[in-house]
Specification:
Two copies of one chain form a homodimer. In chain A, 75% of the residues lie in helices and 1% in strands. By secondary structure, chain A is an all-alpha fold. Chain A has a two-stranded antiparallel ribbon. In chain A, α12 crosses α14. At the A-B interface, α4, α6 and α7 of A face α4, α6 and α7 of B. Chains A, B: Its cofactor is Mg(2+).
Chain lengths: 320, 320
């Protein structure tokens, strides 16, 4: 099966399962908690959960798939809280939860999803021992995501952030939940310790690379294509891997921390390309993907293993 | 053992276990998450957990006590988020987390404690099956606490709240976490289904009665004694069981929704006492305690059972 077809089918399955579980909200709070969850999204984390489960035990995802929703629900809880912190008004083309219901209800809506994420694993049709391991991993993951978000916010107040600090931040903020998605799928399907660990590392790496690709898209993709302000990270002086690599190569980006027109952005991209900054960052992301694919050597040769390798490249080959 | 001695000893044990687990925070976020947790508190939920565990299996609490911290950590997560929603500046005599670290870090600090609450149950030295049940109960409890808080906030915008709605709100906002504390203690200690259910109901009832007693204290205790503004609920037109009972008896409390001096408060108390409102509310709380003690009939006769009965009365006999 083509990766694109697989992702599309899985997203439909996830949407239908979400509808079964939460489609009939009884309270105002449930409606607020559902808002973002039902506003679309690529459902990449449940897809990863499913691929990992079926890669370690063919056909196993069918009965444990409700637990795969847990990762999507966790992701949405973090988005609702992040949007409050960042005062973002729109997400997935819709008004954010706090914009519609106010901050107190949005804090609670995130907290409700947080609880549901754990409930979903508890109700999975799997043995108790891996379930407890999965729950422990999800809890550790949630704590790490919070640390990653806190680091990201603290970087805004700091002049200099090192490459290692940046990589730790993106791994925690974005990587570990992909790691948990793959590892929990493998755990509940009865995978070996080596498979669970390999898939965890794979997920963390592709998640971190995804974030680096996001930074590249911010600079390289036109606003028309990405729907976001081009080069906003550089205009705001954000500490991305591009900014860190530029500084390491002696390039001062401070003069670019101001409104930039199309010509100036083009000039900036040319300069960063000529100095090798773009290439270095792209190579960093590619080398993470290569390592991630190497992590898959714990799996036997199945369609799912191939799709996981494709998915890894997809994470950094998207251009918006 | 006297209840007071028992609670004091348990609080010391809880403080020491919390110190072992989180006493050496490595990040700014961990320090924010620890702030309220290490600012004291009566540790009533872990005490209830311990009593329940030892009541169903003598001596069992020793090895599962770390899981008892989960309830205290959950309580503190809800307080941190509630303080943001209510814009409260002080708690336990200290500045609140959002006042010290800002709202974004306070949202994250609560989220970190939320994750730790689940981690703590996972690491308990107990069989996997009751652990999963305990985690499922904690998750359901967290969702209900959110609903209770949302109901409480929504009541402020409504003219009339019924007795049943009020009782549902206090049961969710305050009762269910006491219910979960007792039930999870019994579950992890290997209690029977009947014992777990009985202790859950016991906890829900004493928790709801605790909240009703809080409403009585707000009206009856002098500011000097309680450290809070006397009669603030009535001045703010809050929907408490006192206000609901008064309305049921044809008393209009609207004229009292204004600044009140000592004499006026005394007059109000006399009027509500003469009309039987105070007595009715006190009897409601007492009847919840009587039912809660009846729930304890699933336990054999131990020191812990007696302490649980004493604890129930303690919840509504405190006068500040």
């Amino acid at each position: 099966m083509e990766l694109e077809t697989y992702l599309k089918k899985t997203a439909e399955e996830v949407n239908s399962l979400l509808q079964d579980s939460y489609g009939d909200p009884k309270t105002a709070l449930s409606r607020a908690a559902n808002h973002l969850l039902f506003a679309g999204g690529k459902r990449l984390r449940p897809a990863l959960f499913k691929l990992a489960a079926d890669a370690v035990k063919p056909g196993s995802s069918k009965i444990i798939m409700p637990a795969g929703l847990s990762l999507e629900v966790t992701h949405n809880f973090t988005l609702i809280h992040d949007d409050i912190m960042d005062k973002d008004e729109f997400r997935r083309g819709q008004k954010t939860v706090h914009t519609l219901w106010g901050e107190p209800a949005a804090i609670l809506a995130g907290d409700v999803l947080y609880a549901r994420a754990f409930s979903l694993i508890c109700t999975a049709d799997a043995p108790e021992e891996p379930k407890v391991k999965a729950i422990a991993l999800l809890a550790r993951t949630c704590e790490e995501i919070c640390e990653g978000q806190q680091q990201d916010m603290s970087f805004e107040e700091r002049g200099v952030v090192s490459r290692d600090e940046y990589l730790e931040m993106v791994t925690k903020k974005t990587g570990v939940l992909y790691g948990a998605a793959a590892a929990i799928g493998a755990l509940l399907a009865g995978g070996s310790d080596a498979q669970v660990e390999g898939l965890y590392n794979y997920g963390c790496r592709i998640g971190a690379a995804f974030q680096i690709q996001d930074d590249l898209i911010d600079l390289l993709a036109s606003s028309a294509k990405s729907g976001k302000d081009q080069a906003s990270d550089i205009r705001e002086g954000k500490q991305t891997l591009i900014a860190i690599t530029a500084r390491e190569q002696g390039i001062d980006l401070k003069p670019w921390r101001r409104p930039l027109n199309h010509e100036e952005i083009a000039l900036l991209i040319t300069m960063l390309t000529d100095k090798g900054v773009i290439d270095t960052v792209q190579k960093d992301a590619e080398s993470m993907i290569t390592s991630a694919i190497h992590d898959l050597s714990v799996l036997s040769d199945t369609m799912e293993k191939h799709l996981l390798a494709e998915l890894a490249w997809y994470f950094i080959r998207r251009d918006y």
